[in-house]
């Protein structure tokens, strides 16, 4: 079953690279008493994710935060080393959270996992964005095609805020 507007996010623990090494962050730490934009990509360093989806959120970070959002996070089914390297190479380190859903358990718990084995990627997350308030989904935008980032892109999210 896919998560829906009004649902509480399932409990999960992510890993994120910091200057001091990896840290574990729970959904409670990330979303409790906060208004957070969360977006997911099928994979760090993949073309649509790196050239379109992530840059839109980095370029519009200040505009999103100005709309009363406390934080922005991106999640992918990659390990924390890959997510950390993506954060550094994209210039996003310290600007948004780069969350590693290393085993896909968060994507599966949301019902937003997708098998991209035919393309050599294995089980990943669907591309989506959501506004989460105090752990509850307020908006949810799921892309129909993993090769596009329009419905879940930063411009669409800004309009919803």
Automatic annotation (TrEMBL):
<keyword id="KW-0049">Antioxidant</keyword>
<dbReference type="InterPro" id="IPR036249">
    <property type="entry name" value="Thioredoxin-like_sf"/>
</dbReference>
<dbReference type="Pfam" id="PF08534">
    <property type="entry name" value="Redoxin"/>
</dbReference>
<dbReference type="InterPro" id="IPR013766">
    <property type="entry name" value="Thioredoxin_domain"/>
</dbReference>
<dbReference type="InterPro" id="IPR037944">
    <property type="entry name" value="PRX5-like"/>
</dbReference>
<keyword id="KW-0575">Peroxidase</keyword>
<comment type="similarity">
    <text>Belongs to the peroxiredoxin family. Prx5 subfamily.</text>
</comment>
<dbReference type="InterPro" id="IPR013740">
    <property type="entry name" value="Redoxin"/>
</dbReference>
<comment type="function">
    <text>Thiol-specific peroxidase that catalyzes the reduction of hydrogen peroxide and organic hydroperoxides to water and alcohols, respectively. Plays a role in cell protection against oxidative stress by detoxifying peroxides.</text>
</comment>
<protein>
    <recommendedName>
        <fullName>Glutathione-dependent peroxiredoxin</fullName>
        <ecNumber>1.11.1.27</ecNumber>
    </recommendedName>
</protein>
<keyword id="KW-0560">Oxidoreductase</keyword>
<keyword id="KW-0676">Redox-active center</keyword>
<feature type="domain" description="Thioredoxin">
    <location>
        <begin position="3"/>
        <end position="161"/>
    </location>
</feature>
């Amino acid at each position: 079953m896919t998560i829906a507007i009004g649902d509480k996010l399932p409990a999960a623990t992510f890993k994120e690279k910091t200057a001091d090494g990896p840290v574990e962050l729970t959904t409670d730490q990330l979303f409790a008493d906060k208004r957070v934009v969360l977006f997911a990509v099928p994979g760090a360093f993949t073309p649509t994710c790196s050239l379109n989806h992530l840059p839109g959120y980095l370029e519009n970070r200040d505009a999103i935060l100005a709309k009363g959002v406390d934080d922005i996070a991106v999640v992918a089914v990659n390990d924390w080393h890959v997510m950390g390297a993506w954060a550094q190479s994209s210039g996003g380190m310290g600007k948004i959270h780069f969350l590693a859903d290393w085993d896909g358990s968060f994507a599966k718990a949301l019902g937003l996992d997708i098998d991209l084995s035919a393309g050599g990627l294995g089980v990943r997350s669907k591309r989506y964005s959501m506004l989460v308030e105090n752990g509850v989904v307020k908006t949810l935008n799921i892309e129909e095609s993993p090769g596009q980032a329009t419905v879940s892109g930063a411009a669409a999210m800004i309009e919803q805020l």
